[in-house]
Fold this sequence. Notes:
The chain is an alpha/beta fold. 49% of the residues lie in helices and 12% in strands. It has two domains: 5-17 and 90-220, Rossmann fold; 20-88.
Amino acid sequence: MSVELVAFDVAGTVLNDDGLVISAFKNAFEATQPELWPTHGAEWTQYAIDTMGQSKIHVFTELLGDVEKAHTANVAFEESYVSEIAEVGAVPIAGAEDLFKYLRSKGIAVALTTGFSRSTLDTLIHQLGWKDLIDLSVTPGEAGRGRPHPDMLNMAIEVLGITHPANVIVCGDTAADMQAAVAFGAGQVIGVLTGAHDEHTLHDAGATSVINSVADLKTLI
Ligand SMILES: [Mg+2]
């Protein structure tokens, strides 16, 4: 395959997560659903883990069954996540930045896709200092639907002028990332073990390879 683009998920794939996303989910539920949290908290938290990688606003809508409540919870989620990141700092997965530089030196574009909103993603990109290390970033709201739908990947190739999904490598840490890549028709669907889901889950969702982290990706290109 002649690789033209590698599209990376963010949290758990190129950005160290360490439970920050789940803890922000818990804070958001607790703050916005204080009556239901004691009885539904465990079930909601498990759902948030299982659906990791999907659009956050979509996950809240599925769980709370109400667009307005979901919006309020999503705002609380993003505030909590951004303040956690401000406290502990945004830490890249080891090797991610070197990989971006390597890919671009070979003429291969680098894109980021996410389940976060644009404002949260921009905060992360700014804190990481990655504005000039990537070619493009896409959020679910901009592309249409989040994962497991392939909309963000379709938008990325359209913007970057890439004609064949087969020339794209997609890399992520969740089942939803793998499913979106398969639906898109990616040439390689690569799971990493630095995030939410294990090797079995990633393979089941369609990964063509599972590697320890993005630091090992070079060997597959
Ligand atoms: Mg992720």
